């Protein structure tokens, strides 16, 4: 009981002391009264910053080229409408609406920033329905390129900055709403004048330095995002219907690729191998020299090639969209289409070989580091992922192993084995994946071993951070990585190819805009290489260029047309499935 009494007494004294202390609001008021000029300056500084933040967000573009100083000197219609609404509302509704309005502006700003990033790397805007999963891939890419600490820091920083941006924007609009309410007559006149000026500038098309004075940037961005969502939802049903119709879906096994019976066929994709590699002034000289040198070396070994262009369904990344488009005959340019087609039974080019029963089928996927159920859809009897090729050497940023090692492992595990059937293979080469640092170098094929020979090469290579930060360096190193991948693949063919080997190799997409440039095409080279002249005679009517380097004016096809053209060229008989 004495203890209880003592505690009660202490609590009473603390309550008495706190009652005598001034509240934070009282102290703030006292400080303002003591320093009125400083308080007024601070108050108007905050008002100005809040206004600049809101107006800047409303004028922010969703593409990097739009980030120009005069783009932020325009009159946003959304600010005028917001001001009129806040002036008209009573206190409590005004605060709620202002907070929601500001938070909405914050969210739209985040979407604009995501749009900028996606357009820079993938050549398209961010899709709020489909693309959240790609953010995990982005984090994994940063972890592989810069380390797990940098990846975690980037992820945490992005979340914190997003929450901070939305919160600060909401507080800014609430502050501005309160300011407008305190000066309602003047605010009303100002809104009326601003609205009149905006309408006049719109009607007359007034511009400064080619930039319209009147802006509806935020409304346009919101409309674009909405249209993207609606188009995605509509596309899902339309594409599912399209995927059910297949020109070769009901073709009997005996009538699929009969003209390639007995051949070992390899479909190889080279990461980011695009038209830029053969046409950019900085990149092309080295790549062209490599292609011409390797064409001559293959010809000396008895191999000849024909090359053309395919327009990829993707750009800068999402390689699986390029792979699936080329092999399915369908235009797969987003994740929803990819999920739809891979969950069905649409015939892939690789599965056509499996369906005949005349080939063993295998996939070599050094970039796959987790479960890959798509193997069944591709028609691959066996898949070797990053952990099944025996590699004990270092990673090269995102790429788990050098292409030369992956090809040698493919030779050891599958291509070089004696077998009862010929082999059809899908091989994904990853050494030319961004950030293009460090880049492997070719070593003697007999010295590859378990890959440890690459330890010193990796240590001597360039660091990713230095290459990523410099667009010129990115272009230069990208070119070197393509030279390496092409050399590794064609040396493998020269060393291990036989009279019955047929190699089809192509790029999956162009490199990112920092390398390929704004507005670059989506074209990628494609080549068919063989010793047997009859293999190339079957595609004479394609009018492709002789050798590994397609001419600038060589035929350009949509990548989705390749499957049907290839199947037709090698004797397949169309038997369509219905819808």
From TrEMBL:
Keyword entries, A-Z: Membrane, Transmembrane, Transmembrane helix
Transmembrane segments: 42-60, 72-89, 96-114, 150-174, 186-206
InterPro entries, A to Z: Alkaline_phosphatase_core_sf (IPR017850)
Protein name, as recorded: CDP-alcohol phosphatidyltransferase
Organism: Streptomyces edwardsiae
């Amino acid at each position: 009981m004495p203890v209880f009494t003592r505690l009660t007494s202490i609590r009473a004294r603390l309550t008495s002391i706190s009652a005598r202390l001034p509240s934070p609001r009282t102290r703030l008021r006292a400080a303002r009264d003591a320093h009125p000029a400083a308080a007024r300056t601070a108050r108007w500084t905050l008002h100005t910053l809040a206004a600049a933040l809101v107006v800047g967000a409303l004028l922010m573009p969703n593409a990097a080229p739009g980030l120009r100083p005069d783009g932020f000197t325009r009159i946003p219609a959304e600010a005028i409408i917001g001001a009129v609404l806040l002036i008209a509302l009573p206190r409590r509704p005004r605060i709620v609406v202002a907070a929601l309005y500001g938070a909405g502006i914050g969210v739209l700003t985040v979407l604009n920033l995501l749009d900028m990033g996606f357009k820079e790397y993938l050549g398209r805007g961010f899709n709020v329905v489909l693309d959240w999963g790609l953010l995990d891939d982005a984090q994994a890419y940063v972890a592989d390129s810069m380390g797990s600490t940098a990846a975690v820091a980037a992820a945490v920083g992005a979340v914190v900055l997003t929450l901070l941006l939305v919160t600060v924007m909401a507080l800014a609009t609430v502050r501005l709403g309160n300011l407008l309410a305190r000066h309602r007559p003047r605010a009303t006149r100002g809104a009326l004048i601003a609205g009149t000026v905006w309408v006049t500038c719109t009607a007359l098309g007034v511009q400064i330095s080619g930039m319209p004075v009147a802006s509806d940037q935020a409304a346009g961005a919101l409309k674009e995002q909405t249209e993207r969502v609606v188009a995605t939802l509509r596309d899902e049903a339309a594409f599912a219907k399209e995927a059910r119709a297949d020109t070769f879906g009901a073709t009997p096994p005996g009538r699929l690729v009969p003209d390639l019976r007995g051949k070992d066929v390899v479909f190889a994709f080279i990461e980011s191998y695009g038209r830029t590699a053969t046409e950019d002034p900085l990149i092309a000289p080295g790549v062209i020299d490599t292609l011409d040198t390797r064409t001559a070396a293959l010809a000396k070994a008895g191999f000849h090639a024909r090359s053309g262009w395919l327009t990829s369904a993707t750009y800068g990344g999402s390689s699986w969209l390029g792979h699936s488009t080329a092999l399915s005959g369908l235009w797969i340019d987003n994740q929803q289409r990819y999920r739809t087609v891979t969950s069905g039974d649409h015939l892939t080019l690789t599965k056509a070989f499996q369906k005949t029963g005349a080939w063993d089928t295998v996939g070599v996927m050094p970039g796959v580091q987790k479960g890959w159920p798509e193997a069944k859809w591709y028609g691959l009897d066996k898949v070797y992922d990053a952990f099944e090729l025996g590699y004990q050497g270092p990673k090269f940023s995102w790429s788990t192993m050098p292409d030369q090692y992956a090809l040698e492992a493919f030779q050891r595990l599958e291509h070089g084995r004696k077998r009862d059937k010929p082999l059809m293979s899908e091989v994904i080469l990853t050494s030319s994946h961004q950030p293009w640092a460090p880049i492997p170098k070719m070593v003697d094929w007999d010295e590859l071993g378990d890959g440890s020979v690459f330890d010193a090469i990796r240590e001597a290579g360039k660091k990713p951070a230095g290459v990523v930060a410099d667009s010129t360096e990115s272009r230069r190193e990208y070119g070197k990585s393509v030279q390496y991948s092409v050399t590794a693949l064609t040396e493998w063919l020269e060393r291990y190819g036989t009279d019955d080997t047929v190699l089809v190799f192509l790029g999956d997409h162009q490199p990112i805009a920092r390398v390929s440039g704004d507005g670059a095409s989506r074209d990628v080279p494609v080549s068919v290489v063989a010793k047997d002249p009859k293999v190339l005679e079957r595609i004479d009517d394609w009018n492709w260029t002789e050798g590994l380097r397609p001419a600038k004016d060589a035929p350009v096809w949509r990548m989705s047309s390749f499957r049907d053209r290839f199947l037709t060229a090698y004797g397949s008989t169309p038997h369509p499935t219905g819808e």
